[in-house]
C-alpha cells in the first residue's frame, strides 16, 4: 500500500509541476494576414562587365574601389604585369562591376580656404581630355582642377566624380589666378556650357555631395564657396550665366 501510495504521490507532484510550467509559458498568436507587415527587400546590386578608360591619377586600386570589385581580379583579367604602371587612356575590363561610386579621400591640412566652381564651357569632356588640353597650354602638372564632374559624355557616367592628380598629391590648383586662389582654393569643374545649356540633375547631386564633404571637413564657410566669375578681378562669367545658384544653395542646406 505504501509503495502504491508513494507512486501516486510522486506522479501527482510531477503533474502539478508540469501544469504550473505550462501556465507560465508564453502564448504565441498567429498574426492575421491582413495585419502582417512585409518589409521591402533591398534591391540587388546590378553588376555587369564594363570597359573603363583610365583617367589622370587613377590606379588599379582606385578603379577597383570605384566599382566595388577585387583589384586582384582586375589585374588578372587584364594581364597587368605591374599594377603601378597603368597608363592614362588605357582601357581596362572591369568584370562584374557594381554601379560606380565616388572615392574621395580627404587629407588633413589647413591649406584650403575656398571652393571655386567652374564649368568647362564645352558640351563634352572628361578629366583625360582636359588634362591633355591643359598640357598643351603649358600646365606643367597637367589638369588644373582638383575634381571634374562628368555629364555622361566621353565614356564617363553622368554625375561621375573624377579626382585629379593635384588633389591626390595635395598640390596647388591651376584654375583661378584671380585673387591668388590657386594655392588656397579647391577647384571643381562641371563638364558643360552653362551659358547655353543646363547642369544635369546627377551633376548637381554630385556637386552638392562633394561640396558638402569638402566644406565640412576643411571648415570652409558658405561665403567662401564661389563661382570662378565671382572671384574679385576675375574676368569671366564661369560657371555660366545659366548656372542655377538658388537651387544649388537650397540643396546644399538640405543635404548637410
Task: Describe the overall structure.
The protein has a 5-stranded mixed β-sheet. The chain has a two-stranded antiparallel ribbon with strand order 1-2. The chain folds into 2 domains: 48-97, Membrane-bound Lytic Murein Transglycosylase D, Chain A, CATH 3.10.350; 114-254, Peptidoglycan recognition protein-like (Lysozyme-like, 3-Layer(aba) Sandwich). The chain is 30% helix and 15% strand. The chain has helices at residues 2-24, 60-66, 71-77, 127-136, 165-168, 201-217, 245-254; strands spanning 48-53, 91-97, 114-119, 147-151, 158-163, 185-190, 225-227. The protein is globular. The chain is α/β, with parallel strands linked by helices and 256 residues long. Mean pLDDT is 88; it is low at 1-5, 13-31 and 33-37.
Structure characteristics:
256 residues, alpha/beta, Membrane-bound Lytic Murein Transglycosylase D, Chain A, Lysozyme-like, five-stranded mixed β-sheet, two-stranded antiparallel ribbon, 7 helices, 7 strands, globular
What topology emerges from the helices and strands here?
Elements (H helix, E strand, L loop, with lengths): L1 H23 L23 E6 L6 H7 L4 H7 L13 E7 L16 E6 L7 H10 L10 E5 L6 E6 L1 H4 L16 E6 L10 H17 L7 E3 L17 H10 L2
Parallel strand pairs: 3-6, 3-7, 4-6
Antiparallel strand pairs: 1-2, 4-5
Amino acid at each position: 500500500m505504501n509503495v502504491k501510495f508513494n507512486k501516486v504521490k510522486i506522479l501527482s507532484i510531477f503533474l502539478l509541476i508540469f501544469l504550473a510550467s505550462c501556465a507560465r509559458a508564453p502564448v504565441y498568436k498567429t498574426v492575421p494576414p491582413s495585419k502582417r507587415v512585409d518589409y521591402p527587400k533591398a534591391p540587388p546590386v546590378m553588376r555587369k562587365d564594363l570597359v573603363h578608360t583610365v583617367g589622370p591619377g587613377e590606379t588599379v586600386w582606385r578603379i577597383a574601389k570605384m566599382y566595388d570589385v577585387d583589384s586582384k581580379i582586375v589585374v588578372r583579367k587584364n594581364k597587368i604585369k605591374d599594377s603601378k604602371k597603368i597608363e592614362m587612356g588605357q582601357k581596362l575590363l572591369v568584370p562584374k562591376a557594381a554601379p560606380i561610386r565616388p572615392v574621395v579621400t580627404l587629407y588633413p591640412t589647413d591649406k584650403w580656404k575656398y571652393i571655386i566652381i567652374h564649368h568647362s564651357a564645352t558640351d563634352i569632356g572628361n578629366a583625360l581630355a582636359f588634362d591633355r588640353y591643359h598640357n598643351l597650354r603649358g600646365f606643367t602638372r597637367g589638369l588644373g582642377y582638383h575634381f571634374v564632374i562628368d555629364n555622361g559624355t566621353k565614356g564617363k557616367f553622368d554625375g561621375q566624380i573624377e579626382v585629379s592628380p593635384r588633389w591626390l598629391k595635395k598640390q596647388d590648383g591651376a584654375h583661378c589666378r584671380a585673387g591668388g586662389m590657386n594655392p588656397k582654393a579647391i577647384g571643381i569643374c562641371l563638364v558643360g556650357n552653362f551659358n547655353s545649356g543646363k547642369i544635369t540633375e546627377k551633376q548637381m547631386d554630385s556637386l552638392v555631395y562633394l561640396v558638402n564633404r569638402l566644406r565640412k571637413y576643411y571648415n570652409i564657410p558658405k561665403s567662401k564657396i564661389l563661382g570662378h566669375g565671382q572671384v574679385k578681378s576675375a574676368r569671366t562669367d564661369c560657371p555660366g550665366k545659366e548656372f542655377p545658384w538658388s537651387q544649388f544653395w537650397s540643396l546644399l542646406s538640405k543635404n548637410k
